[in-house]
Amino acid sequence: MLAFNTFIKCIIAYILLLPFASADISTGSFKEKLDLKILPKDYMLSSFNFKLKSDNIVSPRTSLFDFKKHNGFSRSIEPLLTKNGVKNLYIKFTKGHWDSQKWGKLPNNGWSSGGSGVEIWAMMEAGNKDEVIKNWNILMSEVSGIFCSSVSFINSEKITFINDIQSYYDVDLLDQIPIDNEDNELFFLRGSLANEAVCTENLSPFLRILPTNGKTGLSSLINGNRLFDSYWNSMSIDVNTVCTDDSSCYLDTEIDINFVVNIPQAIARNERPTPKPVPAEELQCDPNKKLTEWECFPLLSKKSYSFFLSDIFGTYINDSNRFNKEDVSTISITGIDDEHWSTGIKVIPRGVDDKDEIEALGLLGTSNHVYELKEHQKTNYDIYVGTTDNTKVSLNESEYPPIYVTRSLTGDSQDKGVMRVAFTNPSQERDITIRYFETLPWFIRLYVSSLKNNVKPHKNLDVPKFTGDVNDLIIKTDIKPSIIRSAPLHMQHTLRIPKNSVVMMTFDFEKPLLNYEEYPPDSNHGFEVEAAVVVVIDEDFEENAMNGETRGLLKSHNYIMRTSTLLLTLATPDFSMPYNVITITSTLMAFSFGLIFNLLTKRVVTFEDSKKLVTDRPLVRLLKGLKIKK
Amino acid sequence: MSLLLTLINRVVESGLIWKILKILPIISKLLLVISVALIFGIVPMDGSFRNTYISENALMPNQAYSQFRETEWNIVRGFRNEISSLNIWNLDVRNRIVRNWLDDFGLETDLYQTDFDSPFSKGLKSEVLYGVLNGQRCDGTEAMLIAAPWYNSENSYNVGGVSVAVALTKFFTNWPVWSKNIILVIPETPGVDLRAWVESYHKDLKITGGSIESAMILDYAMDSDSFDHLDVEYIGLNGGLPNLDMVNTAIHVAEHEGVKVSINGMHSFSKPSHEFKNRLEHIAVGLQKMAFAGLEPLKGHEAFSGWRIQAITLKAVGHGGGSDITTFGRIPEAVTRSVNNLLEKFHQSFFFYLLLSPKLFVSIANYIPAAILLSVAYAAMSIHAILKTGLLTSNDKFIDIQSIEAFVIYVVTLAVSILYRQFVAFIQNNHLSTQQQGKFILILQIFFVFTSYRVYVPKSKTKSLIQAMAFMHFSLALTLLLALNFGLCFGMGVLAYPMALAVEKNISKLKQRLFLLISNPFIAIFFMYSFTQDKWSWNLFNLMISSWDNIGCWTWPVVSSSWLVSWILVVISCNGEDEAADEPKKAKQD
User: Which chain A residues have a beta carbon less than 8 Å from that of B226?
Assistant: First the structure.
C-alpha cells in the first residue's frame, strides 16, 4: 500500500513538474546518417553513424536526470559514468577480418572499431591506481550487464594504463574534462577480450540507446541477422564528457555501426537461404571459352547487377528521424563513379504494401549520390544501386592504408614459441612513425631482450633500400613486465618504418604450465590472445596538439588499426588424467610405505635361519601337531 | 607376503635365475617369435580390433546435404577444359593464369618460390601458388587446407584434382558458414615443394591464415568424368598419423556418397574385412608404409607431418567407374564442413593406431607390446654378452685395457656411423651415377664383413663387451622409437635379428658371415624396399639422405645412429677370439 502511495505521489509530482521542465529548452540533439561505400570486388561497407548529445548538466556533480524529462538521451549511460568516476568511455565490439589489401583503410580512420572481440577504453578520475582498478571492475560488471557481454572478465590481468596519451586521445580536449576533486588524477585505461562472441544480444543494447529505438529512421535497417552475416562488423559507442565552461557540461555520445557484405552473395542469400548451386539458366558463363550445355567456364571479372537496399537488409527504411527538427537523416553512396554506377531513392508512401505497386514506383536520383529522408508524413524509403560494370570501383590514393601489419605465432613446441610481427610500409615516398601497443597475457612469458629486427624491401622497385642500422628504427620503448596471475605484459614500441619496406620484429617466449582450474572449458581450442594496437602517428600534428593548437582533429591525422588475434596452444592436460595420477601416486606411496615399514619392523636373517624360524611359528606348530595326532 | 616370500625362497633355492640366464639366447629368440606372432597373428584375430567410430561429436560427418552437384558439375568441366589445355605451358604460366582466377574469386593469393640448396637436391627450384579465402565467420586464427598438385606422385597431370580444387574453392566463396579460413595450395608436385611451402608457412610466409587444422590433397590425375574408387592415404612421415577422426570422417563421407573406398592403395573394398587374410594384409602394408614413409613417392599428406596438422590424400583411381568427379569434390566439401564445426583442435580420437580395413582399427595398447618384446629380446642378448665377460661374477677389475678398448671402439663406431652421411655425399661428388653409388655402398658392406678381421681382432673380454654394448644400444634405440614410429621400430627389430644369431656359440664361420650380411642395415633395407617396390631401387640411400635433408624424414639418422652402430660392433665382435669356453660355469661354482 505504501509503495502504491509513493507511486501515485511520484506521478502527481511528475505531472506538476512537467510544464516547468519542458519550459527548460533542451540542448540535447540526435543526428543520424548512413554511408554506403562500394568497395572493390563487390563488397559494400555500410556505416551507420548516430550522434547523441545530452542536455547540460549544471555541474558535473549533479546527475543529469534529476530534474529533466526524458529528452531522448539514454538514461542508462549517465549513472554508468558518474558512479565510477568515468569521464570518457569507448566500447567497441568487432568481429571478422578487415581485408585492408582489398578494402583499404578502416572506416573513420580506424577509430570506430576495435580488435576482434570487445575492446574498452576509459578515461577515469581517481586518487590512485588501486582506486582506478577498483572502479574499473565495478564499471566492467555494469557494462557487461548493459551490453550483455562478458567484459567482466577484463580484470587487472588484462588492463593496461596508457602512457603516450597524445597518440590515442586529443590531449587538447583534456581541459574540457571536469575534475571533481582537485587531488585526483585522470587515468586512461584500455582492456580487451578476444574470445567474446559478438552477437545479436550485444546489438540490442546499442539500438536501445538510440531514441528511435531501432524502430524508425535509419536504425530501422539494422537487424542482427544482416549485421552478423557479414565479413566484418563493428559496433562502437564513444561517450565523452564535455564541459564548455564550468557550469555547463554534457555527455557527447557517438554510436558507429559498420559492416561489410558481399553484394552478390547477400542478394543470393535472399533467393537461396542455403547456398545451393545456381539453376542452369542463371549460370553466368564466359562466352569466349568452351560453352556447352554441360560445360561452363564461369564468367570472371566484369559483371552487371543492380539491387535495392531492401534486398540486402530485408526491410525498407521506416520513416525518418523526427527527433531532431533541424537535422535530416542522410544516406550517401560513395566509392563509385557516375559513368558505370547509378543510384536513386524510392519513396514508398504510407499504405502502399503491394509488391507490384511498390515496384512501379519511380526512382529519384541525385548527382552526388546523397539522399535526404525528409518526407513530411510517415513514409518508407528504399535506395537503388545499379552498375553496368562492377570492376569500375577503385580506391583513391588516400584510401589505401598507410600500413599493413601481420602478427603471428610460429614455432611448434609445447614449451617455447616465437611471436612475429611484420609492419609493411607500402608507400614509395615517405617513412612513417608508428606506435605498436601490445598487451600480452601473463602466460605468454615473452623475453623482451630476445627482440630481433630485420628489414626487407616490400617490392623490388627502384626506390633505394633501407641501409641504416636496424636497431635505430626503434625510437622509443616502454615496457611494463607481467606479473604472474595478476598483470599482463605491456610493451609499446615507437618505430620508424622506412618507405617501401617490411620491418619484422620477432620475440621468443616461453609457454608455462597453467594450474588445473585456469584452463577454459574448451581448452583444446587454444588460448585467444588479444589483438595489438598499431597507430600511425602524424608527428607534426602531435607536437601541435601538445601545444593546444588543434581542437579534436586527432582522428583525422592518426590512423589506428588492430592486428588479428592469435591462437596460442599451451600444453593441455588430458582432463581425465588427475584420476590416473591419483591412483598411480597412491599406489606408489603405499608401495614405498610398505617397503620402509618392512625394513623398520622386520629382522634380517640368513636363508637357513629363516627356514628354522618359519617352522617355529605357532601356526605351523599347531598344524604339525594336528598332523601328528592324525 | 609370506606366500611371495616362499616363492622367492624356492626360486633362490632351485637356482632358477641361473638357469634362465643360461638360456637367454633362447628366450631372446622366443620373444622375437612372440612379437611377430602378436602382430601378424593375434592383432588381426577377432576380438583384438574394434570398429572405427567418430569420437568427436562436433564433426557430424554427412549430417548436412552436400551441395557440390548439379550446375557445379558444369563449372568443374569448364575449369577442366581450361586446365587441361594448360598442360603445354610452363609452371609459371599455369600458376599465373590460375592465380588470376583465384584473385577474381576474392582470395588473397601469392606465389611462393622454393629454392633448395643441399648436396642431394641441387638447384631444385619451384613455385607454389596459394591463396587464402577469408572465412566469413572467422577471425583468422584457424584454417583448413586443400591442396592439388599439378603433377601427382606418379608424375601424371592432375587435371581433375586441380579442377575440382579450383571449382570447390569458387563454390566455397558463396558459403557464409566458414568459421576457419580456407587455404588453397597448388604446388608443382606433392613432394618437396609442398613440404617447403608448409615449412615456410610456419616461419615467414607472406600470407598466412592461422593455424592449419586439417589438410586434404586432391589427386584425380585423369580427364575422365568418372572414377572407379577412392584411395585414402594417411600415413605420414616419422610415424606421424592424422587423428583417427579425420581418416574416419573422410572414409565415412566417401562411403556415404556411394564411393568404393580403399586405404593405402590396397583395393580394400574388394577384400571383405571378415577374412583374417585381408586384415593381415592391411596390417602388413600399413606397417611397411609407416616404415618406408618418405622413401616411397610422396603423395602429399606427408608434407604436413610434424605440425599437428591432420593430413590425408584423397586419390581417385581408375577410369570410368561408378562415381563421378563431383562426387569426388563432395568428399572434401563434406570433410571441410565437418572440420569447420570443430571448436577445439582434433584431440578426441586416437593418434596411434593401425587400420585393418577402412572401418576396423587397433589402438596402440594392442600392438605396442610387440615392439616392447622386441627390444627386450635385444636386451636379453646384451645381458647374455655381459655374463660372458664374467665381470658380474668374478672379482676382476672392471677397468682394464680390454674394457677401455671396447669403449673406444664403441665411440669410434658411433662417430663413423653418424658420419656415414658425409661418406655417401663424398661418393656422390665423384660423378658416379646413383645406380653405381647404391651398388658401391652394398659392395662395401660385403667387403667389410669379409675383410675386417684382417684389420682388428678383439680379445675375448673386449669381444663380449662390444657385443653387450651393441645389443644394448640397439635395444635402447628401439625402445625410444617404439611409440613414435612403430612401423620402423618393428621392421628394424625383425630385420636386424640375424645379428643376434650370428653371435651364437659354435656357429660355422660361413653361416655367421651370412647372418651378418643379411642383417646389414643397407642390405636388409635395400632388399626389403626393392621387394615392396617390385624393382631394384639402387638410389635408395641417396633417397634416404635427401628425404632427411628436404622433408625431415628420420629414417636415415635413425638407421645410421642405431642399427648401423650395432651392426658394425657385432661384426667386429664376431671377428674376435673365442672366449675361454666355460667361464660362467666357473663363476657359479665360486
Answer: none
A229–B139: do the CB atoms touch at under 8 Å?
no
Domain count, chain A: 4
Residue A7 lies in a domain: no
> Looking at CA atoms only, how far is residue B369 from chain A in angstroms?
21
Domain end marker among A549, A568, A587: A568
Query: For residue A550, what pLDDT is reported?
Result: 67
CB–CB contact B81 A283 (8 Å): no
Name the band, by pLDDT with cuts 50, 70 and 90, for residue B160. very high
Least CA distance to A276: which residue of chain B?
A: B67
Give yes or no for a contact between A103 and A260, defined as CB atoms under 8 angstroms apart: yes
Residue B319 phi, psi (nearest 5): -75, 145
CA–CA distance, B164 with B333 (Å, rounded to integer): 10
Contact between A459 and A502 (Cβ < 8 Å): no
Question: How many beta carbons lie within 10 A of that of residue A620, not counting itself?
Answer: 12
- Residue A261's pLDDT band, with cuts at 50, 70 and 90, is very high
Q: Indicate the fold that domain B57-358 takes in CATH.
A: Aminopeptidase (3.40.630)
For an interface test with B, give the residue of A455, A524, A604 to mutate (most B CBs within 10 A). A524
Task: Please report the DSSP string for A435-502 in residue order.
Answer: EEEEEE-TTSEEEEEEEEEEEEESS--SSPPP-S-GGGGEEEEEEE--BTTTB-EEEEEEEEE-TTEE
Q: Which of residues 195-234 of B touch A (CB under 8 A)?
A: 202-204, 208, 210-211
Helix axes B434-451, B540-551, angle to 10 degrees: 110
A560 and A583 belong to one structural domain: no
**One domain, residues A556 and A588:** no
Q: Is residue A383, in this structure, part of any structural domain at all?
A: yes
Of A362, A387, A412, which one is at a domain's C-terminal end? A387
Contact A96 B137 (CB under 8 A): yes
A29-39 and A329-334 strand pairing = parallel
Residue A12 included in any domain = no
Residue A395 lies in a domain: no
Interface of B with A in 308-347 (CB under 8 A): 308, 343-345, 347
Q: What is the CATH number of the domain that holds A429?
A: 2.60.40.740
pLDDT tens digits, one per residue of B325-380: 999 999 999 999 999 999 888 988 899 999 999 999 999 989 999 999 999 999 99
The residue assigned the cell 573513420 is A108
Q: Please check whether residue B75 touches A, CB under 8 A.
A: yes
Same domain, A79 and A171: yes
Q: Which domain holds residue A103?
A: 26-261
The answer to whether the Cβ–Cβ distance between A99 and B202 falls below 8 Å is no
Annotated domain spans of chain B: 19-44+365-589, 57-358
Q: Do A524 and B72 touch (CB under 8 A)?
A: no
Same domain, A430 and A532: yes
Residue at grid coordinates 609370506? B2
**Per-residue pLDDT reduced to its tens digit, A143-179:** 999 999 999 999 888 999 998 888 898 888 888 888 8
**Chain A residues with beta carbon closer than 8 angstroms to that of B171:** 277
- With cell 547477400, the residue in question is A266
pLDDT in tens, A453-505: 989 888 877 777 778 888 889 999 999 999 998 999 999 999 999 988 999 99
In a 10 Å sphere around its CB, with 0-12 CB exposed, 13-18 middle and 19+ buried, how is residue A462 labelled?
exposed
CA distances from B312 to A181, B143, B299, B440 (A): 67, 15, 9, 37
